[in-house]
Write a structure and sequence with these properties.
By secondary structure, this protein is of the alpha/beta class. It contains 21 helices and 20 strands. The longest helix is centred in the middle third of the chain and has 18 residues. The relative contact order is 0.11.
Length: 543
Amino acid sequence: MPFLEIRDLRVSIDDTPIIKSISLNLGAGEILGVAGESGSGKTMMALAIASLLPARAVKTGQICLDGVNLSDANEAEYCKIRGQDIGLVFQEPMSALNPMMTIGRQVAETVRIHKKIGRREAQKMARDTLAKVGLPSSEFSLDRYPHSLSGGQRQRVAIAIAIALQPKLLIADEPTTALDVTTQAEILTLFKQLVYDQGTSLIFVTHDLAVVAQTADYVAVLKDGEIIDQGNIAAVFKSSRHAYTQQLMENAVHVPHRASRTKSAADKSVFPEMGDSPVLEVSNIVHEYHGERKLLGGRKVLRAVDQVSLQIYPNENVALVGESGCGKSTLLRAILGLEKPQSGEIKIFGQHFPTDKVKEMRKLRRLIQVVFQDPFGSFDPRWRVSQLISENFHLFDSPPEGKQAKLKIDQILESVGLRASDADKYPHEFSGGQRQRIAIARALITEPSIIALDEAVSALDVSIRARILDLLAELSDRLEVSYLFVTHDLSVVRSVTDRILVMKAGKIVEQGETAEVFASPKNAYTIDLLKAVPNLSRELSDR
C-alpha cells in the first residue's frame, strides 16, 4: 500500500482549472521530484496536499496519507496534521520565518503546539534539531534572529522547523533556488540523509531537472496542471517520448543559454575608453560587523568585506559570485549606499559617492539602480505599477509630471516587453517573469549608467530566465548600460557577463574574463564552485 496516495486531484479558482486530475503514489522513505516550468501547477499541487490553498480555491479528489483519508479533513484537523505529520519547507526562508522571533523559539514553538511539554524540553528539542541540520549551538546560539544568518543558514532553520517532530511527509517547494551551488549541495545531501535516517517521504518541487536527478527516486513532470510524464528517474529522463519532457531535458543538458550582444566592453574597438573612465570604481572597501559580546567583555568583529577593489566600464557586464556568507551582498549594499563601510571609497563616473551625505548622494543615485531577487517582496502590493515605477522620479532635478510622466512610464514598460495598459495593474496580477520585467523598468526609469542585479533571475525557470537575460542584453546594447550581476548561479554568469569576480571570506580570490575563468580556473575555491554545479548528464550517467 502506498504511503501517500493521490487520486483525481483537481483544483480550480473562480471556475478556472489550475490542477486537472492528478494521480500519483509515493512509498515510505521515497523521494518524488515534481518538475515543470513556472505556472505548470507544481506549487499548487503541493499546497493542495497540505490544504494551504488560496481562499477562493476549490479542491476535489482523494488524498490519503498512511492509510488516512485527508480529503474531508477540516482546517482544525489539518492544523494538527501540519507540522506533526506533514512538514513544509518553502522557497524563501526570510518570508517563512518570523523576523521578530529567535531561531530557537521558532523551532520550539512547533514542538509545543503539537506536544504537551515544557519550555525547557522544547528548547532542548530545538537545540538537537538545529544541530541535526548543521547549526550546532556551539556556533549558532538559539537566541539569534533570522536576519543575522546567511541565506543557507536560514533555510536550515526552516528545515529544522519542518522536521522537528519527524513528520511522515516532507514537502519542499523550490528550497534551493536562492542558494549558491555549494550550499545547495549541502541542503540536498541533508534532505536525502533525513529521508534515509527517519524514513520520511519527500516531495521535492523544483524547475531544475539536474537537482531532480541528483535527489529524487521518481519524477512527475507537470504541464498546464497535468502530469504528462512520471516514473523512476532513469526511465523518464533516458527514454521519455513526451515532447515537453524532452524540451525540458534539452534546456537542462545543453550549454546554458547565451544572450546575444552586439556590443561588449571587452571589444576595445567599440569602447576605446575602456581602462580610462570606469562607470563604477570601488577602492579598498572594508566593512565589519560587531557580533555577540564575549564572555569577558568586548564584541566579536566579523570583517565581511576585506579591502575589496573593482572597476566596471561602459557597457560592461561584470559578475560577482561566491557562496552564501562570502560578503557579496554586504559589498553590494555598500556600493548602493545602503550601508556605510568603515573605510574605502566608491566613485561613479569619477565622482565620490558620499554614503554619509544624503543630499549629495541623491545626485549620483540616479545613475546607479538595483533589481532585487524577489520583486514581489520589493514592491508595495497596494501600489499600481505606475506608482511603483514613478517612485524614482524624485531622483530627477526636474521630475516629469502629468502627460510627460505617463508617456515616460508607458515607453519604459513597452521597452521591457510589457504593455502600456499594464501600468494600471497591481503586482499580484503578474507572473514571476513579468514582475521581474517591472522591476527592470523601475530601475531603467532614472536612465542609469549601471544596474546592480541581486540574484535577479535565480528563482526563474530556464525558459523565463532565458527571456529575461535576452532582454537585459538587448537593453545593455541599446541604452549602453552596464550591469553588476551579484549571483550564485554560474549558468547566468557564463551566459551574459564579460568578466567574473569570485569572492570568498570577504576577499576577491580570482577574477578574469568569464570564458577564461570557466575554461581554466586557477583558484581552488573557484574549481570547487564549478564542480558543485548540478549536471543532468553526469547525474544520469551515474544511474
